[in-house]
Design goal:
This protein is of the alpha+beta class. It has one domain. Strand 2 and strand 3 form a beta hairpin. The longest helix is centred in the middle third of the chain and has 13 residues.
Length: 57
């Protein structure tokens, strides 16, 4: 499971499992990546649920 984050000409991909981990980064700063990772942690259960609904049904 993973999520893509896209904004302002930058893009990143984070794995959600087995743990939250940066997979790819294009143009986000380290500070922005830390903020994004924090948001992912805060909304982890929602993201997992949305991923499962979208891909599994």
């Amino acid at each position: 499971m993973h999520v893509h984050v896209i904004s302002g000409g930058a893009e990143a991909k984070f794995w959600l499992e087995p743990e939250i981990e940066l997979a790819k980064n294009y143009r986000y700063s380290r500070k922005q990546l830390k903020e994004i990772e924090s948001l992912i942690e805060d909304h982890y259960n929602e993201l997992i649920s949305a991923w499962q609904k979208y891909f599994i049904g």
